[in-house]
Structures are given as structure tokens and as C-alpha cells.
Amino acid sequence: MGDESELYAFNYSGFPGAESAPTRRSATSDPLAVRIALITVAFLFLGLFLFLPVIAVFIEALRKGTGEYFAAISNAETLSAIRLTLMTAAIAVPLNVSFGLAAAWAITRFEFRGKQLLVTLIDIPFSVSPVIAGMLFVLLLGVRTPIGAWLYDHGIKTIFAEPGIVLATIFVTFPLAARQLIPIMQAVGSEEEQAAIVLGAGGWQSFLRITIPNVKWGLLYGLVLCNARAMGEFGAVSVVSGHVRGYTNTMPLYVEILYNDYQFAAAFAVSSLLTLLAIATLVAKRCLEGRVAPVKKFEQDVPENKAAA
Amino acid sequence: MKRRDRVLPGFGLTLGYTMLYLSIVVLIPISTIFFKAASLSWIQFWTVVLAPRAIAAYKLSFGAALAGGLIDSVFGFVVAWTLVRYEFPLKRLIDVMVDLPFALPTSVAGITLTSLYASNGWIGAWLEPLGVKVAYTPLGIVVALTFVGLPFTVRTLQPVLEDLDKEYEEAAATLGANRLQTFLKVILPALVPAQLTGFALAFARELGEYGSVVFISGNMPFRTEVVPLLIMSKLEQFDYAGATAIAVVMLIIAFSILLLVNGLQKIAGRRLMVT
Fold it and tell me: Is B133 on the interface with A (CB under 8 A)?
């Protein structure tokens, strides 16, 4: 939705100025009644499903007044949940982003057999139900399994403890960064890197000075998406957490515990923090999309370049 | 092409790291579930998988995901169409908000939708006198799944609509078609692969959804228990064998949908930009 399309829409379909404009309508625009009807339907549907819930979170959170609200978000258990959420994201996000970079480098810079299969395998966690994702780690690392028993004997508790939460989160957010980086690295192409290498730069030097600056917005975009999911994951984490109150609760889990305790105002107070995070994510995503899109667009517009290369 | 690409270093390092990390995080954990399932006898497996409670859960999960996916397809089309073709106030805000279900933790969505649709909630209080109960009924599950699946249909359709060449519509109009004919015979056929892909993605996500459903459904076996909830309840009773059997069924269905979507994208020619 660049300026051009807005201009186009204004000139030809002309919703804002339709009343004053001559009544002839372009062949590719819809009748005014249809336009108004569809826009109304879209507003009603999204209002009901997206905007009302967001408003409800904040109203429910503040129902008992700001005093209760701030008490709810600053008590020890909430802070412990916030700490675990931040820690989980701080481990999962860098790991998955570095994986995304490596995978995108291998996939977009070299030809090898089974590449398409690799791309499909990377997508697997998207199609696994969160409950099953959590369950995988219970089956793999629970105390009754060989690995779990060995770890337990050495004093390491993974399931129903923090390591399990971190692992489940890594699994769930696994494809997010790679998914963003692969098409962008593909679109940017490898000419500049080849030039750097030919001119005598080392591999790491060319990676840090050429590749990273070229894909930095895509990298940030993947990081934002990965972070939002890492901090917000509920199902998978719920299976591996074991619900040890105040010890292995992330924020989304703590919301459930408060809600099931009938502490609704507190549940919504913690929810409001997560909702703010979601809104910040959406805003960041939109700002970055403007910077990422031209790269992808360039690729689509000039297919000859790729063919010639 | 091949020889020149080898100018670049790091093939062994990055592919090796990719494979190692993929194996540790995804492949090994996924394979444990199949090993665990293989340790069950056929009779054990089928008794769990075909138990009446499980059958009721499949029916509910499929029915609700189908309904949610269809609602998302219809309204997702309306939203994508208005966002691409029309100008109206708050358009940018709406475009940004469409991704909310991606970004909002599912437990937050779950408790919020439940409080809205409970009989004393903002929406539930309106529906109650009409005899419509949403929270703690299958209808509530459909509402939660519709919320969760919406971005998939909108975001799949939007780029396809943006790329749709207006020249075809102009040609149709020149040849005497009215707007409805143009829409039905020119625009709609071009959108079929994207509509199907969007539906399949939403359906797959809705089939596995747990967080937003657990609060609004009430979790009554045979009535409002979807498959992920059934797996969860088996896990909570430490019935790992039973949970595994049902999870395997769900995984096979999910992978089939993934392959189907890949096939659809190939047909539509909008494959991921990887050669």
C-alpha cells in the first residue's frame, strides 16, 4: 500500500470523493453500495473479534482500580513469572536467530541435494500442535526415559523445570527466524559477498560487513516475531512446566493460574502486559515491513536479473 | 552457477550446524513419539485411538476447525478485499491489527474471549436472551478457533490480490461483462489456490489449538473436549502411551496438510523463493 496505490484508488475508485465526483465509475471498481457494505462487514467482524477483546483486557484489568492493578503486576509471583519469561526468550531467540542465519546461508548460497526437503523440515514445528510439542520433550526427557534418568541422576531436572520450558519454547519458535531470512538472503543475492571474497576478505569479515548489514532489517523482523512467540507461548510450555507455582511459571502460564483461582482482575492485569507486548510487536512488525518489502519486491520485479546471473 | 558459488566459504560449517541444530531441536524429539508409538501393540494402539471419547474429540475438533476455517475464509476474503481495493478511514490500523492473533498469547485470548462470551459478558449477555449460549459450548470453541485462524486467510489472500492484474478486469469489462460477472468469472478463479491455501493453514492451526480453547470450552469429555485437550488430560494422568497414540494420529494429519499446502503453493506458483 504505497503512495501510488492510494493515488490510484483515489482517482479511480474514489471512495472519499465519490459523492462530489462525476458519477461515472471505472470498470475495475465496485459499486458504492457494495463498497460500503463490504467495509461495514469488515469493520463489524474485526471489531467483534479483534478490537473488542483488546479493549476488554484493559477494562477488566482496571476493574478494581489502578491500586489493585499495580499491586497485581508488581507482586513477587508476577515478577518471578516476568523474569522466567524474559530469561526463556533471552535463550531461545538468539539460538533460533543464529540457526536462521546459518540455514539461510547454506540454503541460499549453495546448491545441494535435499535442499527442498530441508526447507520443508524446517517448517515442521509450525504444523505440530503446541500440546504435542510440549509432550515431545516429556517423552524425551521425563525421569522415566533413559536420557531423563541419566540427567536426573546427575542432578539436572529438565521436565517440570526451567530447562524444559526453554526447550519447548525453542522448538515452537524454531522456524520463525529462518522463514524470514531465507527469502531475504535469496533476494539480496551473493554478488557483493563474492566480490568481497575475491578482493581478499575472510569469510567472517564478509559475513559481518556485507551479509549482516544487507539483511539487518529482515534479521530484526525475524527476531521480533521469534521474541513475541517465545514470550507468549502457552500450550507447549504448559505441558512441560508442571505448574509449580511461583517457580516455573512464565507470564502466559501465570495468567491461567490466576484465572483458575478466580483472581480475574489480577489475571487480566498480567494479560494487559502481554497485550501491550503484542501491540508493540505489531507496531514494530509494521515499521520493519516497510524496510524489508522493497528487497523482496525488487526480486519479484526483476526476474531477468536472476536469470542473467 | 555451481562452480562460482563455491567462491563463498562456509558451506560445510553452516549446513553442518543447520543439520545438527535441526536434529537436536526437531527431528530427534519428533522421532521419540514414533518410537514410543511403535512400542505399543496394535491392539493397544487402536483401542486408544478408536475409543468413544477419542472419536467424539476428533469429530468436535474437525467440525470446529472446519467451521472456523470456513468463517475465516469468508470474512478473511472480505477483509483482504477491502484492504487491497478500497480506501477508508482507519485502514492502516486495521491492516496492522489483523496479525493480533499471531502476537497475542493464546492464554490471554482464551480468558478474554471467555469473559466476553460468558453469560454475564459483554457479548454473552446479549446472546443469552436469544437462547444462544457460546461459552462452555461447541460454539465457543468455534469462536476461539475463528479468532486464532483469521490472520492465515487474510495474509494468504492479500499479496495475491495485490498482484492481481487489473487489466484482466478491464478486458472483461470491455468485452461487456458486468462487475458481478467479472468478479465470478475472472477474479474468483484466480483466487482459488490462495483461498484453499489460506483455509488449509487456518484449519491446521485450529486443529492443534490449545490455549484459547481450554478456557472457553469447559473441557467436558464427549461434549466440549477437542483433541489437544484430550491429549493434555491423558498427560496429566501420566497415561503417556494413550497420549502418544492420539498424538501420532494428529501428527500424521498435520503433516498431510503441510504436504497439501506445499502442493497447492506449487500449483499457484507462489513457492517460497528457493530454487
Answer: no
CA B264/CA B258 separation, integer angstroms: 10
Distance CA A236, CA A258 (A): 19
Residue-wise pLDDT tens digits, A217-241:
999 999 999 999 999 999 999 999 8
Q: What is the sign, positive or negative, of the torsion defined by CA atoms of A26, A30, A36, A38?
A: negative
Q: Is residue B115 part of a domain?
A: yes
Q: Which residue has the higher pLDDT, B236 or B4?
A: B236
pLDDT at position A146, please? Answer: 85
| All domains of chain A in start order, with CATH | 3-56 (no CATH), 65-308 (1.10.3720.10)
Cell of B146: 475463528
Digit-coded pLDDT (tens) for B87-134: 999 999 999 999 999 999 999 999 999 999 999 999 999 999 999 999
Hey, how many other C-beta atoms are within 10 angstroms of the C-beta on A43? 17
- C-alpha cell of residue A209: 560487513
Q: In this predicted model, what pLDDT tens digit does every residue of B240-256 receive, in sequence order?
A: 999 999 999 999 998 89
* Helix/strand/coil for B188: helix
> Which pLDDT belongs to residue A14?
43
Contact A109 B108 (CB under 8 A): no
Nearest CB among A16, A129, A271 relative to B250 is that of: A129
State how many domains chain B has.
1
Residue B175 CB coordination number (10 Å): 9
Whichever domain contains B198, its CATH number is: 1.10.3720.10
Segment A160-218, tens digit of pLDDT: 888 999 999 999 999 999 999 999 999 888 889 999 998 988 888 999 999 999 999 99
User: Does pLDDT of B3 surpass 60?
Assistant: no
**Average pLDDT of B178-200?**
89
The verdict on residue B190 lying in a domain is yes
Residue B184 confidence (pLDDT) above 70: yes
pTM assigned to the model: 0.88
Question: Would you say the C-alpha torsion B214, B215, B221, B225 has a positive or negative sign?
Answer: negative
* Cβ proximity of A206 and A197 under 8 Å: yes
Q: In this complex, is the C-beta atom of B254 within 8 Å of any C-beta atom belonging to chain A? A: yes
Could you tell me if residue B189 is inside a domain?
A: yes
Say if the Cβ atoms of A28 and B96 lie within 8 Å: no
SS3 state of residue B40: coil
CB–CB of B97 and A129 under 8 A? no
Cβ-count burial A286-305 (b if 16+ within 10 Å, e if not) = eebeeebeebbeebeeeeee
The CA-atom distances, in angstroms, between B1 and each of A246, A252, A284, B8 are 57, 49, 37, 12
B180–A contact, CB cutoff 8 A: no
B81 is in which domain, residue-wise?
A: 55-268
Distance from CA of B205 to the nearest CA of A (A): 7
Examine residue B173 and state whether it is found in any structural domain, yes or no.
yes
Task: Specify the DSSP class assigned to residue A207.
Answer: I
Residue-averaged pLDDT of chain A:
85
Taking residues B248-272, report their average pLDDT. Answer: 79
DSSP B250: H
| Interchain pair B115, A174: CB under 8 A | no
